[in-house]
Amino acid sequence: MRPVDPRLLRHAGAARAYLICTVGLGVAVTALVLVQAGLLAHALATAARGTGAAALQPTLAVLLAVVAARALAGGGGETVALRAAATVKAQLRHKLTAHTLRLGPAWLGGQQTGEIATLATKGLDALDPYFARYLPQLVLAAAVPMAVLARVAAADWISAVVIAVTLPLIPVFAVLVGLHTKARTQRQWRLLATLGGHFLDVVEGLPTLKLFGRAKAQVQVIGEVADAHRKATMGTLRVAFTSALVLELAAALATALVAVEVGLRLLAGHLGYETALLVLLLTPEAYLPLRALGTQFHASMEGATAAARACDILAIPVPATGPAARAKPGPGGPAQVDLRGSYIMLNEACVAYPGRDGLALDRVSLAIAPGDRITVTGPNGAGKSTLLALLLRFAEPTAGTIEAGGVPLAELDLAAWRAQIAWVPQRPHLFAGTVASNIALGEPGASRAAIEHAAALAGAAEFIEALPAGLDTELGERAGRLSAGQRQRIALARAFLRDAPLLLLDEPTAHLDPITAAEILATIETLLADRTVVLVSHGPAWTSPAGQTIALDHGRMPALATP
User: How far apart are CA 33 and CA 58, in angstroms?
Assistant: First the structure.
């Protein structure tokens, strides 16, 4: 395993200044170690000669200052490293969230959302030991032994040879143990991600589990996964403690070897007393950083493993396949079109999802004119939601093209394109916040009157007024206090509020009674007559002259009918 993952440093550009400062403080600590050992050896040798306390006072004063400076440099290095860790975590979370959004719902649908949530929270939080202790210790482990070895060689070359021969044993043992620890830590992380994902599934599906009497069985499954994670964690800790014992034993034997040969030569009169003290004081300092590095390596493995997983996700290319996706923007940057006056053309468009057999859409050709009312019907799996995903640019055609105003969608500015679309999915998501903030999600600056008007258009005004604080009622997580139909109406109000020329509705009336569903469709036909609407529905189609019905079957469009 590499001591530092270059991908992590590449994704943490803002932390480089902190890391440079950490390296500088590590070099300062190295110099202070040498000075401290020299001063202490000189003070002990002076005291042994019996020259009196007055002769020791200057040396002891300087020694005290050096010890204080070493403590400040060590503490400052850890403080700076913690700031680096906070910066890196913020950057990685931002990049991970942004890249996940760019990968889109198609990619996220094939992932364990519990793992992604665990990764972005607890996983990245574990980077603190990596930056605050492991990286500073890595600097010390590289600088201190070499500096100590050079200083000892200048004082006593025989002891320097002994240290040089025994010093490599510490990193060799650390690498051997580290290879074993890496596999165990990766298994520990996989179990933690599985536990998080499974727990999320159980919480979301608790009503179903209770209904079918499977809640206790799932509790048992969670207990088994948690127990497996506990065993993996204890196994990793056991290896870490064993490695610490091995490294301590190797360092102790090497230090003892140096002490024995120094003592024998001191007794024989072949080595000066102050030189012997200097060698004995510096020898443990040569092994200490390497021993500490092994300990900090194990403590930082969880964070490093999580960061590696985050870097793996960031390395996934954003889906861009097929002729339309390969088109290059014009020389003036991304193009823009106004959907109020532009046709949308699908020409033999095909969509294939990775890991799935067959095409989700198979050579679909369709012209959507401004103001059209299009109903898309078909059995489950026919490709209706994939057609909307194409228009939302959540998916790209793997063959064929899709254009707006004669311009391929891949050449259009993505943010400007989506700004012209209002979308109501099958299962709309409401966020923790007020009813008003959820309706105004796509129009944050909307006035109170506009929000109330949109709620009235969606048939939501009556039940909103009955809430404790009306539009200012806090919905809580996933708006659990509302029924499915009420959540659907708020999502419709959100779409109506946004002055978007293209309105995409995926089963918008599935949770509504027939009277309310008919009223909403009538509202769209009359009050939103200037908008283009694509409606996925198993229910009624449009009754207006502009309405047409498209039937999809296994991704194909066998029939096109106009009422």
Answer: 19
Take residue 89 and report the two structure tokens written for it.
């975590």
Region 268-272: what's the mean pLDDT? 80
The DSSP line for 40-52 is HHHHHHHHHTT--
- Report the C-alpha gap between 25 and 73 in whole angstroms: 6
Contact by Cβ (8 Å): 124, 303:
yes
SS3 394: coil
323-356 burial code (b ≥16 CB/10 A, e <16)? bbbebeeeeeeebebebeebbbbbbebbbbbeee
8-314: CATH, from 2.40.10.340, 1.20.1560.10, 3.40.190.10, 2.110.10.10: 1.20.1560.10
Q: How far apart are CA 472 and CA 422, in angstroms?
A: 23
pLDDT of residue 449: 92
CA–CA dist 56, 451 (Å, integer): 82
- Residue 210, judged by CB atoms within 10 A of its CB (0-12, 13-18, 19+), counts as exposed
Calculate the CA 125 to chain-centre distance.
Answer: 10
474 pLDDT more than 80? yes
Q: Delimit the domains of the chain by residue range.
A: 8-314, 339-561
Q: Which two tokens stand for residue 118?
A: 């665990």
Residue 563 has pLDDT above 50, yes or no: no
Q: Do the Cβ atoms of 200 and 313 come closer than 8 Å?
A: no
**Contact partners, residue 455, CB within 8 Å, separation at least 6:** 439, 461, 464, 471, 489, 490, 493
> What is the rounded distance in angstroms from the CA atom of residue 450 to the CA atom of residue 177?
65
Using CA atoms, how far apart are residues 8 and 92, in angstroms rounded to an integer? 9
The two structure tokens encoding residue 26: 């590590």
Taking 70 as the threshold, does the pLDDT of residue 7 lie above it?
A: yes
Q: What six digits make up the tokens of 79?
A: 């403080």
Q: Which tokens sit at 385? A: 């939601």
Question: How much is the pTM?
Answer: 0.60
